[in-house]
Amino acid sequence: MTGTGHASLRIDTAAGSILCDPWVNPAYFASWFPFPDNSQLDWEALGDCDYLYVSHLHRDHFDAEHLKRFVSKNATVLLPEFPTSEMRDELTGLGFTKFLETKSDEVHELDGGLKIMIQALTSPTDGPIGDSSLWVEYDGIRILNQNDARPTDLTTFNALGHVHAHLLQFSGAIWYPMVYELPEAAKRAFGKQKRDRQFDRTFRYINDLKASHVVPIAGPPCFLDDELWQFNDIFGDEGNIFPDQWVFQQEYAKVGGTNSIVLLPGSVLSLSADAAETTHPVDSLEDFFARKREHLEEMRERKRPVIEAAKASWRHPEIDVLKEMKRRIEPLLDESVYLAKGVGGPVRFDLVGYDGASVESIVVDFPEKQVRHYADEKVRYRFRTERALIEHLLFVEEIDWVNSLFLSCRFSAARIGQYNEFVYSFFKCLSEERLQYAEGWFDQQKPDAEDIKLGDWIVQRRCPHLKADLTRFGIVDGNTLTCQLHGWKFDLPSGRCLTSVGHELRSRRAGAPAPDGDTGAVAAESVVGQG
């Protein structure tokens, strides 16, 4: 295994090579950079691989510019079984043509005896609608690249045999608590709690798998913009949530951990059943991390032009922000049931103008299903950011504000009450496909799914394919129901899917008794149910 930075690595076997999550270019409004710096590796050689694995669409894992320029288009993409086609669509757009569509938790044997298994996580709260882990076996040697996925347990991987190297996240990857408008002492206390929880979660996973060796990856990012410099863990702040690999080794040792291996960009780990031999591009890991601030300051100066060029591209004064937010968001508010109810109140955006002083306040009013100017009412959540950032999101028609604005940490926030996951779930679902999936997923968490009446039929409310609301997208023509979101068809008398194997639909004629055990209640009647 060759370390290539952050969550990225290249796995080489006699049966082929797998490049995982290559990330080099700054992410999230040029706020995140990989640490240590990996931009000077020989990416032409590293990208000449047999297989490509991208764990999920977070931009510190999915670097479109780098994938397009440096990764061989002859590589076969190992595709997680995600609920939407977004990852395949994105990679196809970059020029990739070979895909192995894996089945979650199913072992796939590739050429030469190389075996892989990908476990896909599909909750709306997992990454940007999905996250995953990669298990690899060759010649009896097994590794688990868990990266920053958070499965409920690791029993599926344990059942496949002893793992020799376990690669997993240990550092923070979020904006809490740094951006919250709190007293510094409170932020430090909350940060320490989160830092401790991160380590505890990592140690639990390590103990569950009991691999021969542990490799801390998927963090930390570094912050090279002067405005964000304070987020780097170089100031002795016990509340900093971005500890590095050397700090992990020290914390792991406190709980008896002696089997960890640090991979810098360019480090090479040769793994066998009985041993692990590592070479590094530096003479001393301890000395390298002792000089962390010096490395960061050198990177900051070298990357300053990159950051300044990015900032110059964000302003779009021609954008009417209120008008465009209304156009983009109000139709989704109209369709949202579970997310809107979960948010439960208005969310306010304070947009700071180009002059750094003037502020325009816009409210996304979830109960009233509208976007409007702020009217001095109490709000549940408030975000303050530069107007230019929202202009850019609207200009590029960004569908995931979490995977752009919020992870950038280029904002401040205040809230009433506890953390509300529905706020962030909604703002990562600013597309028809994502919103319908998220709504359907939350709907499925109820013990009794709702039924609706479409024409002469009683059917389940959510399409079995990607959980679209059939009161909006269902069309009945004779004995066939079509979900217009993706064009999937179902035979109503049998419930059989006519588009693909599986995905049966619960359906019966109106007036017919419900089958035993069917407790779904008719919740709505669609006025577009006739074809």
Automatic annotation (TrEMBL):
<keyword id="KW-0001">2Fe-2S</keyword>
<keyword id="KW-0408">Iron</keyword>
<feature type="domain" description="Rieske">
    <location>
        <begin position="459"/>
        <end position="498"/>
    </location>
</feature>
<dbReference type="InterPro" id="IPR036922">
    <property type="entry name" value="Rieske_2Fe-2S_sf"/>
</dbReference>
<dbReference type="Pfam" id="PF00355">
    <property type="entry name" value="Rieske"/>
</dbReference>
<dbReference type="Pfam" id="PF25451">
    <property type="entry name" value="SCP2_Rv3818"/>
</dbReference>
<dbReference type="InterPro" id="IPR017941">
    <property type="entry name" value="Rieske_2Fe-2S"/>
</dbReference>
<dbReference type="InterPro" id="IPR057330">
    <property type="entry name" value="SCP2_Rv3818"/>
</dbReference>
<keyword id="KW-0479">Metal-binding</keyword>
<dbReference type="InterPro" id="IPR036866">
    <property type="entry name" value="RibonucZ/Hydroxyglut_hydro"/>
</dbReference>
<protein>
    <submittedName>
        <fullName>MBL fold metallo-hydrolase</fullName>
    </submittedName>
</protein>
<keyword id="KW-0411">Iron-sulfur</keyword>
